[in-house]
Amino acid sequence: MSSESRTGPRWILASSSPRRRDILRRLGFDFEVRPPDADECSLPLEAPEALAERLARVKAEAIAGGLDVPAWVIGSDTVVALGSDVLGKPEDAVDAASMLRRLSGQTHRVISGLCLIGVPQGPVRSGVATTEVVMRPWSEDEVAAYVASGECFGKAGAYAIQESADRFVTELKGSYDNVVGLPSELLEEMCRDLSLTWPPDHTEDS
User: Fold this and answer.
1) What amino acid positions are annotated as catalytic residues?
2) Contact between residue 66 and residue 14 where contact means Cβ atoms under 8 Å apart
């Protein structure tokens, strides 16, 4: 159903991520994409979980604040944490290779913050989902080849499990969708908590 034919609140994804779009489509959402203009810098001493949840809320609020029609806005942010250190999107090839070497042979956490905002006047739900990812060791040749492929860029932690990096992962403890970039299980939990139909029904009243 197109956005013009909807009779109820529209769904809006506050993200430009193609991976999040793919997950929402698979879940049955009919939605619009509105990338937010949001500062994604961390705060001093901010824990990875707090960072992911705060940025998800910032992104959702940035879009929700400019809407004048009934809508549900989904904001999400994903970070990779090795201990207390956050590995964001690599700045360049050197940075990407450094991240991959740090993840090599280690268990790290992929943390996605999720925020769901109803427009107008709320409600608001936010939370985080965490998946532990166990990686086998990478050889220097594998690191160099992966960086050269370009797949590392634009991804937290410099890898994409849904593309070719899955061959380096030996175990997942938690949600696969969370590692891709949007915790579908947490979104379902929020929707059910708000008495929204699951799978989503964009013809329902707000």
Assistant:
1) 77
2) no
